[in-house]
Prior knowledge:
7-stranded mixed β-sheet, disordered N terminus
Amino acid sequence: MRADVDADPETSGGAAEAAESTETADPAETAEAVPDATDPVERALDAFRAGDPVCVHDFADREGETDIVYPAGAVDEAAVAHMRNDAGGLICVAVSDAVGDAFDLPFLADALDHPAVDDDPDYDDRSSFSLPVNHRETFTGITDADRAKTIVEVANAAGRVRDDPTGYGPEDFAAEFRAPGHVHVLRGDRDGLAGRTGHTELGLAMAEAVGAAPAAVVCEMLDDETGDALAPADAAAYAARRDIPYVEGAALVEALK
């Protein structure tokens, strides 16, 4: 991009012309030049409250990844397509520990009896993965419409548990969902952000802060050129281009723990 060059006052009319140019500047252009001073956490919570996505970077010394995160109850086909195309990682729905208990969902590593099981990731004490499920009204479960249906119904069930902790149990879950499926369910830590600071807990903390159902969708952002996790600077630039809030996990932990 060519840098702008200051005009010579001798040939351009000097300060008077510069002042006139400032006075007649397009207000829209001027507004775009002013950085958004809104607190990133406030922007993220406002977006979540409206059912819109947020880009959340966890920590450089953890996964070092940025996820696109949605409140699960707001996910539709377009949201699934957005995550599939613009993020590219695994689309998962996280539920709180209390909801996981009500559903009687195991941690996947505990449920599998196979010599390949090794739940000791480098980035944490254990993974959050529980059962992969499909809603029973889906077909294959993998289409955007099918995955959106599964995610929204998980959020609806989580909301019912929040509103009536004893009114929805494992049998109700099994009547609505089947495993294996195409949407991985994640279980949040029992102590929330005080116990674990993964995208699972960060998304659930945002959902709780805005009064949404205790369920959030997370999907890792990958770099198309390298195949690695998208660098934080590139994720922030993407978020700015798309007018999506970008927030650091540390800021969310400080505000919501």
